[in-house]
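WARN retry 2 of 3 for item q-0093 after timeout on previous attempt; input resubmitted unchanged.
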Amino acid sequence: MGEALLSGLLRSGGRTAEEITVTARREERARELAGKYGVSATLDNAEAVKWADVVVLMAKPQDMDVLLEQIRDAVEPRHLVVSFAAGIRTSFVEQHLPEGTFVVRVMSNVPVMVDEAMSVITPGKLADDSHLAVAEELLSYVGKVIRLKETHLDAVTATSGSGPAYFFLLAEAMIEACILLGLSRDVATDLIIQTMLGSAKMLRDTGKHPVELREMVTSPGGTTIAAIKHLEEAGVRAAFLNAIEAAKERSEELARGADDEND
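OK item q-0093 returned
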């Protein structure tokens, strides 16, 4: 996610290489990023924070407390801290940094790699519209951005955050079905990818409800309604509802776990 954001910012002209410093855990990774993108790279998180005005935190939830401890003494009132850590609330970040730190939390997803991310931002206790605008501007170079209250971010994590995996699973199943019906894997892959791409663009560009678009394809007594009948009988709709609810509950567990560790 971090490299994808870096690549998108540079590719779009949103930032120049001279305006970005990245950090890495390993020397070879730092050299790789510096060579590939022309940015400054360091193994010292605190050093990078001192150089920057906007600090973007890209770390696994279980690593956030260590990262925040490393940068705590380098964070100043001028800094805006933007956290991408899944399940980590703004209050957790604020409690690990100097009092008065401005924090914005982001929930994005992997289509950031192709500049089609869906990112949701939410402010911490002290962050205001000006801080949200900075995060919004950064993320707008790699996709769409909306603002929501933090109470909604577990639901966002379960839907748009995890959502690409659901689509990839569906694509995998449809490709396998094509192969079962006698098509080659290459042909099956082309058929399904373009079908999903075209369908997504129809959803976005027509403004029609998914039910309306589905009914456009579903003729009485035809092939599509026969397939949908089987999907409904198999409980596919209920399975999606249950799966997304389970993902939301897991996001809440991660947040509670971080809070408990902080206590």
